[in-house]
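Hello,

Our lab assistant flagged a job as stuck in the queue for most of the afternoon. It eventually completed. Since we weren't sure the result was trustworthy after the delay, we are filing this so someone can double-check. Below is the sequence as submitted and the structure that was eventually returned. Let us know if re-running is recommended.
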Amino acid sequence: MNHSTTILFVPGAWHNPDCYDPVVSRLEAVNYKTEKVHLPTVGPSTHYLNFDEDVAQIRRQIKHAVNAGQEVVVVVHSYGGLPSNEAIKGLDINTRQKMGLTGGVTHLFFCCSFVIAEGQSLISAFGGNDLPWFRVADDKLEVNVADPDKVFYNDCDDVQVEHAVASLRPHSYQSFHSVCTYAAWKHIPSTYLYCLQDAAIPLAVQKMMVEGTAKGFGMGTETVDASHSPFISQPDELTSAIRRAAGESI
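-- returned structure --
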């Protein structure tokens, strides 16, 4: 593997990035550098009104890696794809090479994440309606998950489910209404991981985003027989897919 590659992990809503640890440990065992992003909108003391702080945090961590000359593969889960696309603008390797700089984002890996076009928010992209498993507070500032064991972890064992559910935190609901202004997947190589048992973003919706929203941009695909949380239930398969996205022939 290439020691100049950093894998940056961005979690979805409600999640601590430590959820990726089974994959992180496998990548570090074959000498990849890894970084994890804690999203400010997850469990804040005061809820945010947009995704700007998430974008800024992801961008800071990408910049730190690329300024050290690293090639960066950004792995995004669920909601995490939205602020990550924004954060990548101007930090892809092609743009930086044109400026005479080394390092840059080389690949964007969607782990059952949302692929959203410019001008849309997560909510508007799906007709302006909340997903059926959202539980939104009356003041529209906080959102939680109904039945996360069934929505996120339907192929995990009881111990995994208990630990994962206990780790979830309230999320800033208004971040779901932030409008995307940059689609990094139009500008850098990208991979979408289809998760066949995903109860949060059903396979039909995953395919609609890849074959509809991203049509014509050459997004690659991988498939795993997993729930919305393959980093817990199928870490070997997810690790291999990420290594292929990083350029390995495995």
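-- support follow-up --
The delay was a queue issue, not a problem with the job. The result is valid. The chain has a mean pLDDT of 97. The two ends are 11 Å apart (CA to CA).
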